[in-house]
Amino acid sequence: MIRYLPKFKKQYKKLPLQIQKQFDDRLRIFLADPTAPMLRVHPLRGDYKGYWSMNVSGDIRALYLIQGEDIIIFALIGSHSKLYG
After folding, report:
1. Are residues 61 and 52 in contact, defined by beta-carbon separation less than 8 angstroms?
2. Contact indicator for 3, 70 with CB cutoff of 8 Å
3. How far apart (Å, rounded) are the C-alpha atoms in residues 46 and 31?
4. I need a labelling partner for 59 at 20 to 30 A (CA). Which of 31, 38, 39, 80 fits?
5. pTM above the 0.90 mark?
6. What domain range is 31 assigned to?
């Protein structure tokens, strides 16, 4: 099951349509195979410990949490510099 935090929804709506489409395409890939190399999924450390990062495009990342065995909660989406810096 996929869920979205309100902040994620707000950030997503502000993205250019092309980036929104890229996220939608990557989400389909993620649902079929969360370990697909093109997604570059990895756990985060530091301030984002507990979150996972998924590559959407060259500079855009989607951060999510895993709850239980079958719930993915997308929390944040944005450029690398906006999310981490």
Report:
1. no
2. no
3. 27
4. 31
5. yes
6. 2-84
Phi, psi angle pair for 79, to nearest 5°: -70, 155
Give the DSSP H/E element, type plus range, for residue 84: helix 80-84
So what's the pLDDT on residue 84? 85
Residue 38: which CATH number? 3.30.2310.20
Residues in the chain: 85
**What's the structural domain count of the chain?**
1
**C-alpha to C-alpha distance for 18 and 64, rounded to whole angstroms:** 21
Cα–Cα distance measured from residue 15 to residue 24, given in angstroms and rounded to the nearest whole number: 12
Each residue's pLDDT expressed in tens, for the chain with a length of 85 residues: 999 999 999 999 999 999 999 999 999 999 999 999 999 999 999 999 999 999 999 899 999 999 998 899 999 999 999 998 7
Q: Which residues does residue 52 pair with via DSSP β-bridges, in sequence order? A: 43, 64
